[in-house]
Amino acid sequence: MNKYDSLSDQEKRLKGKMQKLEFADKLSKAQRLKLRIFSGYFLTQVVWLIFRLVLLVGVAYIILYPFITKIAGSFMSAQDFTDVTVKLISKYPTWDQYRVVINENRYFEAFFNTLTLSLLCALIQMTVCAFVGYGFAKFKFKGNNILFLCVVFTMIVPHETLQLAMFMKFRYFDILNILGISSSIAQNAVANEYGIVTSAALGDLPALMQDGFINLLDSYWPLGILSIGGL
């Protein structure tokens, strides 16, 4: 009968660890390092670490490569674009593209207009949502869950699915001649709202008024009202 048969499993494991430590103490530092490196657990950890590193670097490269090419292209001159040998590094780097964007497109004016509009809409939405959320949490009434489900549903449904329905509903609903969306130009503008937002951000409201889409005393209120209402 073995002297270890009477020991419990925990005592056996502890005894095994003590024997391994006694064996390791008898080895030199080089032998212990060699034993640790060539152990199965260490090799498994190293292989898994290398695999994760290669996978993350590959995914990061695929995601970042379009941004890298766009950033590198922004510093290229006309000669670089016509030179087939130029890939990412420009031979004749220039800042002309940034000068054109900042000066001719009034970049900072559009940036601060967008920042002001976004901050105001965000603050108003946050205030309204805080009161609504407090009301749903504090007061319990009949139909509370149904009404809350409707609120959540309005946030889930994307705006693009409602855009055509909203246009068809409000096209004859002209409040004080604010929204003149009966013209064909305005209908095209509704389908392509990017041009409206860009023009308004740049302060080009007279052009929008000529199109008959926005006519509110040369102001940004139409876009602000839509943003505050979550539209």
What this model shows, in words?
The chain is mostly helical. It has two domains: 9-74, no CATH class; 107-228, no CATH class. Helices cover 71% and strands 0% of the residues. It is built from twelve helices and no strands. It is flat.
What keywords describe this structure?
mainly alpha; 12 helices; 231 residues; 0% strand
Q: What sort of overall outline do the alpha carbons produce when their principal axes are compared? A: flat
**Helix content estimate:** over 70%
Please report the distance between the alpha carbons of the first and last residues. 83 Å
Order of helices and strands: HHHHHHHHHHHH
Layout of strands and helices, then pairs:
Blueprint: H1 9-25, H2 29-37, H3 40-74, H4 78-82, H5 96-104, H6 107-138, H7 144-156, H8 159-170, H9 184-191, H10 193-201, H11 205-210, H12 221-228
Brief synopsis:
This protein has 2 domains: 9-74, no CATH class; 107-228, no CATH class. 71% of the residues lie in helices and 0% in strands. The protein has 12 helices and no strands.
